[in-house]
């Protein structure tokens, strides 16, 4: 910041919705970047695919509308998936079945977000999937989902790195399955490894945002930028609990400078102008809120299983005897180590 190297900032605005008093220095920082059209918003807690429309979502939109009046966002994004937990605002973002019902709900919610913020709206690709089949379908589903709002994608390269490792799929194969003309922003970050007890010696890559950016993710950045003609932002993410020691802080600065150098080198040889506005031609809000009672019940059931199962075997037994068995969720195809990971994520967020 002091060296004026930060050209834009991304703000997880809904993390402060319940904070009554925001420090004046932080408001000044937001205002400075907002005035220069270099402030972008990133939501975490909306729970895009909740099967039932909740009061928390209504409140979230009202807060977003208020925040978008106070600050000018160049765009606003949300996480893909639904949040585990009974109110879907205290849990972990996990995948959903790719069906007409979830497509309808997602499109409905994106229209409402766009109406609230009055700027381009996008979604971030998931780090978590239950099966290779889901991994391969994700890009095409994002493409369909974003069409009504002419939305864009945050291509999180560490999330992609998780999928590449966890499902042993080549980069060229996976990246070809994404609509790269819809990428307006790229994220890079670090994460962690976890041993799988359900499928040893498998190691699962987790998107925990608490460590340095791996060399492999920087390589993905170098290989991906030129594939995205409408790319405008590259953002380095790191949670505060990963910046405690002097060494971690120095590493974060080094990661930023390495990212900056890669972007500068790419900008020297590519056009940085985009004619794509990522705004809907005819913005509309559906008269009726899309809901699906069956999906909602299954989400509650899945959340309860993941949050309370004492062991992997307990979770599998509960899933096999639940309403998710032999359904659009296709639990029969889920990788054992990803069910185990979903349990860990859900139980960690619940705490």
Automatic annotation (TrEMBL):
Which Pfam families did the record assign?
Answer: MbnB_TglH_ChrH
Q: Which superkingdom is the protein from?
A: Bacteria
Protein's UniProt name: DUF692 domain-containing protein
